[in-house]
Write a structure and sequence with these properties.
The complex is a heterotrimer of chains A (about 120), B (about 80) and C (about 900). With about 120 residues, chain A is an alpha/beta fold. Chain A has four helices and five strands. The longest helix of chain C has about 60 residues. The chains are: A alpha/beta (about 120), B mainly alpha (about 80), C mainly alpha (about 900).
Chain lengths: ~120, ~80, ~900
């Protein structure tokens, strides 16, 4: 299964979102951005991205809740998710395929995304 | 304020105070009788000088007695006497 | 001594009373009322009983009818001898229900009936108008004594006197709408006037007794000589009148509106009856027994055509004692003035509470509950209603005086008033001693009594209809009064016996007869969202400061902090009673139903709560004491627990939050600084990314600064740098500095600039920080279409300073209020309005550091923060225990 969209970034901080999109787009991936947790599920369902990069702290619906929703959904349960977190590494929600702690080096980001997308 | 059980008998202080309160009623009744009865019964005697002296004397006595009784009635216990 | 000089003296005297009342009011406002709040002041204030009727009219009365004039004082003498069990009960019950007037007492006892209150007010008004006219007339008569024969008096004296008295009453009687009806300034003025009139009367009395006559024995001898003369027949006591008048005056000393006001409403506690119980009769005795020598000597010394009502003045004048006569004139003026002022206060309260406000509420049926109506200031409305009523009361007296031509003997009008008000007595006495008396019974009795009185006493006294014809040997007045009172009493008892009262009435009956606080019914519990509405209602009536104070106190009693108590039945009952202390029981009940919307009490509830057996009552009471204690502790524990749970969750979240707040900007900075190192970026991108890095770095700096601030304050190692500053300048700076927040929005700033100019001793930089923070918050979060920020400053009671900063947005939701001063407690803030959520936490720490506090005030419409500063900051480092 292939999608036109490689990465859907769900992140409310505009400057971080811009940085991530800049880095991933330069790498040649097609990257979309969504700033609001409550709209995210609909976007995922519609765009069917190959990878979701999800920020943990979101207004509206938090990253953890979103993840739980995804895993409970029959269609989206296997959606690959990369979780970004700015909190400590303890008490992370279940269900993420990979976790990347903020702040991260751009190289690390590229590497992780490569791992996800090259697998397919 | 703490819960208080109703006592049947009072100590000396309380007893005195209770009787002083009773006495104020007696004084009032006595004065009412003194002010009402003689002038109504014997108006021809009590309409002039005698009546003046009589009323002045009984009223002064009443005032003195009330003052003395009220002095005894300092600081009443809160709920001992709503038996009016 | 000319009328002009006396007029000037009267004006000077009234001005003196203004000053005195003003000083007393100010002292009371500063909490220094206590030293004036003595039994002697209370006793003296009771002397409003002795109006100009006593001062001038008693002598005339004695000259015409002999000892009969004494009945007017013997009645009160008897009633006060029994003050300890009769009046004390009345005072206790009235204070318990915060009764505002005699009409309110009757209405409250009989199920808070608005109709009964209006009826009693009507009777009081009818009875008082001629009585007030009498006072104005006595002034005119007294001043005319000093005029040269044939010299016309300055026109409209009585009008000017009326205007002056109305002004005095409005100024000191309707100052504010307190939760109780006490007027310290007025009471003080009355007490002083009582001394003046007693001194004047004693002066003229002793002069006559020993100066003109040869002492008491001589006067008594003259009385006995008089018995043989034809006039002596007038002195013969008529038993029916003797009895009736003593009964009437005994009733009057309690039920006359002005007497009820000073005796019950202005009383601070019932203990003062211990002193007044003998001192007031002593005052009356002194006044009344001095009447006799004046009357007898006046008759012997003065020409036969002299008016006996004015012997007090004409006797000294005939002896050339102008100064004594002037003193007597002032004494008479004092008695007239205090009677008019207190009557006007009492009557205006009754008219406003029982006529005008219910009428207004009825007209406003639809709009009061609507939010638009909520803005109206009910307190101002009620004060204006009272002012209007005062003008109406005194104006009616003046009109009556003009219309009647003022010829009637002084005594007659007084007795008419007494007999009218006495129609309230059966309802009061029976209502306080028999639980079976009902509203319909009382209404029937009072109405019938009042109609008979109007037909047989009041209207004939106006000359409108002929006096009633009585069987020979019965005095028309005594007969009419006894008839009215017996019909009154009979109807009251008969109707009550066959009636079945509604539950509210039965609860009130229980409470009044047994002098126990009114109980509450279980189905009164209202949704707790209403407590803010009640606070708003209270604020509109008492002013929001007093309302907040009361609500805070009640919340504290429940073991809660903050300003919103739970709407327990107990609180609702207390609140309604407090409200009744301002607007009367009937109106308070109507308002409560309007806001809380509780249903009526049912008979079943009644039987459940207020069991009619006294045993059940006793058990209830004991149980209630224990359970209320328990409930309070439980509430306190629950609140502490809630707060601790919230706090500990918060503490866990705190580290995560700090981490998040630090890492987020770091992420952008790291990402973009790496990107900047990459080749092939456009110059445009490059500079934009550098800009982002810069913004994020400063965000980080701000956050660090906040954290360090907090840490320093919390550890207590901050240094206080106190200085004296002008609050106005500080607010100016804060407004300027906070303008950078949400600059695109235009705010209307409401301030009272002159009031801001006060010096404050504090750490200016720290206070500035708090002000900026709070104002910036208002700018950020106020969601009104036309945002308004309002800043109020005032000196607080203990010399501290209060600054209220409020906006007209939707405020902070009740459930969030507990946490707003915690770290990172940023509320519903999707926009992340810049700060990290530390602002109010820092404000709280700073205010504690400055020895003051910051609190959220509910019930102000929008969000409102109160910053309280102490008179001077705490001594540095002394309180750094925490």
């Amino acid at each position: 299964m292939t999608s036109a969209i490689d990465v859907l970034l769900i992140e409310d901080e505009p400057s971080i979102a811009e940085a991530v999109r800049f880095v991933l787009t330069r790498e040649g991936w097609n990257c979309r951005h969504c700033a609001n947790g409550s709209e995210a599920i609909g976007q995922i369902r519609r765009l069917k991205p190959r990878l979701v990069i999800l920020d943990l702290m979101l207004p509206g619906r938090s990253g953890g809740e979103l993840l739980a929703d995804l895993r409970a959904d029959s269609v989206l349960a296997r959606q690959p998710v990369l979780l970004l977190t700015a909190r400590g590494t303890d008490a992370l929600p279940e269900g993420a395929d990979r976790v990347l702690a903020k702040p991260f080096a751009n190289a690390d980001l590229r590497l992780v995304v490569h791992e996800f997308l090259d697998r397919a | 304020m703490k819960p208080r059980t109703r006592r049947l008998f009072l100590g000396r202080e309380g007893y005195r105070r209770r009787r002083a309160a009773d006495a104020t009623r007696v004084v009032m009744a006595a004065f009412a009788l003194a002010a009402l009865l003689p002038p109504i019964w014997l108006p021809q005697y009590f309409s002039y000088a005698l009546g003046t002296v009589w009323l002045a004397a009984t009223w002064s006595l009443t005032i003195l007695a009330t003052a003395a009784l009220h002095r005894i009635l300092t600081q009443p216990p809160a709920e001992d006497e709503d038996d009016a | 001594m000319t009328p002009e000089t006396l007029g000037a003296a009267a004006i000077a005297y009234i001005a003196l009373m203004f000053l005195l009342a003003h000083a007393a009011d100010r002292a009371a406002a500063r909490g220094r009322w206590r030293w004036m709040d003595r039994p002697v002041v209370y006793t003296l204030s009771l002397s409003v009983y002795c109006s100009a009727w006593t001062f001038f009219g008693a002598v005339g009365y004695a000259s015409r009818s002999g000892l009969e004039f004494l009945t007017i004082y013997l009645g009160p003498g008897i009633v006060f001898a029994g003050a300890w069990w009769g009046l004390r009960r009345l005072l206790r019950v009235a204070r318990m229900h915060r009764v505002t007037s005699i009409a309110d007492l009757i209405s409250s006892r009989f199920g808070k009936s608005a109709a009964l209150a209006a009826l009693v007010t009507l009777i009081s008004m009818l009875a008082a108008t001629p009585y007030i006219a009498l006072q104005l007339q006595s002034f005119t008569m007294a001043i005319s004594v000093f005029a040269e024969p044939g010299d016309p008096l300055p026109g409209n004296i009585s009008l000017w006197v009326g205007i002056g008295l109305a002004a005095f009453t409005i100024l000191f009687g309707t100052r504010n709408l307190a939760a109780d009806e006490r007027h310290h300034g007025v009471v003080m003025a009355i007490a002083v006037e009582a001394v003046v009139k007693l001194a004047a009367f004693i002066a003229v009395g002793t002069y006559v007794l020993w100066g003109l006559a040869d002492g008491p024995a001589d006067v008594l001898a003259r009385i006995d000589r008089l018995a043989e003369s034809p006039e002596g027949q007038g002195w013969l006591i008529r038993p029916d009148r003797w009895f009736t008048l003593i009964a009437l005056s005994g009733a009057a000393v309690v039920v006359l509106p002005r007497m009820f006001h000073v005796l019950v409403v202005e009383a601070n506690d019932e203990d003062r009856l211990r002193h007044a119980g003998w001192a007031f009769p002593a005052y009356l005795a002194a006044m009344s027994f001095l009447v006799l020598p004046i009357a007898v000597i006046g008759r012997d010394f003065l020409p036969a055509d002299a008016n006996p009502d004015l012997y007090v003045l004409t006797l000294p004048l005939s002896q050339g004692l102008d100064t004594l006569a002037a003193l007597v004139f002032l004494g008479g003026f004092s008695s007239a003035m205090s009677m008019v002022v207190v009557s006007a206060i009492a009557l205006s309260t009754m008219m406003a509470n029982h006529w005008l406000v219910p009428l207004w509420l009825w007209l406003r049926q639809a709009t009061l509950s609507a939010p638009a109506g909520a803005q109206e200031d009910l307190g101002a409305l009620m004060l204006n209603a009272r002012r209007l009523a005062i003008v109406a009361v005194i104006g009616a007296g003046w009109v009556y005086h003009q219309a009647s031509g003022g010829t009637a003997a002084l005594a007659a009008m007084g007795i008419v008033a007494f007999s009218g008000m006495a129609q309230v007595l059966p309802a009061m006495v029976v209502g306080l001693s028999w639980r079976g008396a009902t509203r319909r019974g009382a209404t029937a009795g009072v109405l019938a009594g009042a109609l008979i009185w109007a037909q047989m006493v009041f209207l004939p006294s106006l000359g409108l209809i002929a006096p009633p014809v009585m069987p020979a040997g019965i005095d028309p007045f005594a007969g009419a009064v006894l008839l009215a009172l017996s019909v009154n009493l009979t109807l009251l008892i008969l109707v009550s016996l066959i009636d079945f009262p509604d539950p509210v009435e039965r609860m009130q009956a229980l409470s009044f007869v047994h002098a126990i606080a009114p109980d509450s019914t279980p189905n009164e519990a209202a949704p707790s969202t209403k407590s803010e509405e009640l606070l708003t209602l209270a604020g509109r009536i008492w002013g929001s400061e007093n309302a907040l104070e009361f609500f805070r106190g009640m919340a504290e009693q429940q073991g809660k902090s903050g300003y919103l108590p739970d709407l327990t039945p107990r609180f609702l009952v207390d609140f309604e009673r407090r409200l009744a202390g301002t607007v009367g029981a009937a109106t308070a009940a109507a308002l409560m139903t309007r806001v809380v919307g509780r249903g009526g009490v049912t008979v079943a509830d009644l039987m459940e709560v207020a069991g009619e057996a006294s045993q059940a009552r006793e058990a209830n009471r004991r149980l209630e004491l224990t359970s209320s204690e328990l409930a309070r502790t439980a509430a306190m524990l629950r609140e502490t627990n809630d707060k601790l749970t919230a706090l500990s969750a918060h503490k866990d979240a705190f580290l995560g939050q700090i981490s998040h707040e630090l890492r987020t900007p770091m992420t952008s900075i790291q990402a973009f600084s790496e990107i900047l190192k990459e080749p092939g970026l456009s110059d445009e991108d490059r500079s934009r990314f550098a800009g982002i890095i810069h913004d994020e770095a400063s965000r980080l700096t701000r956050l660090l600064q906040d954290l360090i601030d907090l840490a320093v304050l919390e550890v207590g190692s901050a240094r206080l740098k106190p200085a004296v500053i002008n609050l106005h300048d500080l607010i100016e700076r804060a407004l300027a500095a906070s303008g950078a927040t949400a600059p695109q929005r235009t705010f209307t700033i409401q301030r009272n600039r002159p009031a801001e100019h006060m010096s404050v001793i504090t750490d200016p930089d720290r206070l500035l920080q708090v002000l900026i923070n709070v104002i910036a918050n208002a700018r950020k979060y106020c969601d009104a279409e036309f945002p308004v920020i309002r800043i109020d400053t005032r000196r607080a009671a203990a010399g501290g300073t209060e600054i209220d900063i409020s906006d007209n947005g939707s405020g902070i939701a009740p459930e969030s209020r507990a946490l707003i001063f915690e770290k990172f407690a940023r509320l519903n803030d999707p926009a992340r309005a810049g700060g990290a959520g530390l602002g109010l936490a820092i404000c709280k720490e700073i205010m504690e550091f400055l020895g003051g506090r910051i609190a959220y005030l509910p019930g102000r419409g929008g969000a409102c923060f109160r910053i309280t500063l102490p008179a001077r900051p705490p001594v540095s480092q002394a309180n750094d225990a925490n």
